[in-house]
């Protein structure tokens, strides 16, 4: 059941009785009964690992299987058995959707057959109207707010982001430009298992007054947070897509991102944002320093990024693509 984000009242929830990993196997009979009762035109199954297994064992037809990231990039690499599970689940779906081209290519590698499968790229678009009230701060002497919105887990490299700020401080000292450091305010939004570890790192580096863990925010509050942001900084080790970057671009915020595949697909050239080696905090710091010092560059990146989102990641257009997948899956 949803706890933090409400589901539309027009949606009917059917709860399955068994939770946890065993539910992916033991709920199959119950799911089959629900399927028979409501007789849906199409079934959208999210994750090729757990729920993909459940839909296959329940002998679901007309399945649109949406792959999301770890189910394709991580789960199949645990063992040969895990890979075989994902292969069988993918092959049982009528249509496979991926939020990015790089993940769609990984799906093809896992399938490893000459037989053609219906794989469609449907980006996680954003509703542009929610981000239209962003006020751009072009004043070169004002405070610069740097934001990251991610789960506090190792894969998202939050510890790297903290070390980037340490390197940024060192660079400002080297440049005899402490004002550039004083102007910076860093906000990290999210919750997760690494919270205490990250806070200890912040404290140990003497950045307690500079880097702030702001906690979790629901999706509806993201536009509000971004409206007070000057630079969006993400240091993930892996990303299958990167909807947080799309949201920042929609809010007309310049982005500095790691070279994770999902980010490089979105920021495909230097006019849209800055891509940095994910293992190089010093290069991140230099890129951050350049943007802090150059409001004109920030504004140009922000404008180009917004145009790219408008062209490729408009929510309404992406929904139409997904609706077509449902229609095609429902055909006998």
Low-confidence stretches: none
Strand percentage:
5-15%
Helix content: 40-55%
Largest sheet: 6 strands, parallel
Radius of gyration: 22 Å
Number of discrete helical segments: 15
Instruction: Kindly report the CATH topology of the largest domain.
Output: Rossmann fold
**Strand adjacency order, main sheet:** 7-6-5-8-9-10
What is the architecture of the largest domain at the second tier of CATH?
3-Layer(aba) Sandwich
Please report the first level of CATH classification, the CATH class of the largest domain: Alpha Beta
Q: How many structural units, i.e. domains?
A: 2
What is the N-to-C order of secondary-structure elements (H for helix, E for strand)? HHEHEHHEHEEHHEHEHEHEHEHHH
What do the pLDDT scores average to?
91
Distance between the termini: 32 Å
Shape: elongated
Structural class category: alpha/beta
DSSP, total strands: 10
CATH-defined superfamily of the largest domain: Glycogen Phosphorylase B
């Amino acid at each position: 059941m949803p706890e933090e984000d409400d589901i539309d009242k027009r949606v009917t929830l059917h709860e399955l009785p068994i939770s946890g990993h065993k539910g992916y196997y033991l709920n199959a009979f119950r799911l089959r009964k629900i399927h028979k009762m409501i007789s849906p035109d199409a079934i959208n199954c999210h994750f090729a690992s757990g729920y993909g297994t459940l839909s296959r064992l329940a002998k679901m037809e007309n399945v649109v299987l949406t792959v999301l990231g770890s189910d394709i990039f991580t789960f199949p690499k645990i063992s040969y058995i895990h890979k075989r599970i994902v292969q069988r689940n993918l092959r049982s779906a009528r249509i496979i959707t991926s939020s990015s081209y790089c993940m769609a290519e990984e799906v093809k590698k896992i399938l490893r057959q000459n037989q053609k499968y219906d794989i469609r790229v449907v980006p996680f678009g954003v509703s542009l109207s929610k981000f239209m009230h962003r006020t751009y701060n072009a004043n070169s002497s004002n405070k610069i707010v740097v934001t990251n919105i991610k789960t506090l887990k190792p894969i998202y490299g939050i510890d790297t982001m903290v070390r980037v700020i340490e390197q940024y401080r060192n660079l400002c000292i080297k440049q005899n430009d402490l004002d550039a450091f004083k102007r910076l305010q860093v906000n990290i939004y999210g919750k997760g298992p690494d919270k205490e570890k990250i806070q200890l790192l912040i404290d140990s580096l003497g950045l307690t007054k500079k880097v702030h863990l702001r906690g979790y925010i629901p999706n509806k509050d993201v536009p509000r947070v971004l409206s007070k942001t000057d630079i969006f900084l993400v240091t993930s080790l892996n990303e299958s897509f990167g909807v947080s970057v799309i949201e920042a671009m929609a809010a007309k915020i310049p982005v500095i991102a790691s070279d994770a595949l999902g980010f490089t697909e979105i920021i495909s050239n230097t006019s849209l944002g800055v891509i940095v080696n994910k293992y190089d905090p010093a290069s991140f710091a230099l890129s951050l320093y350049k943007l802090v010092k150059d409001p004109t560059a920030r504004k140009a990146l922000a404008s180009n990024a917004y145009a790219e989102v408008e062209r490729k990641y408009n929510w309404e257009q992406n929904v139409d693509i997904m609706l077509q997948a449902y229609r095609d899956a429902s055909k006998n």
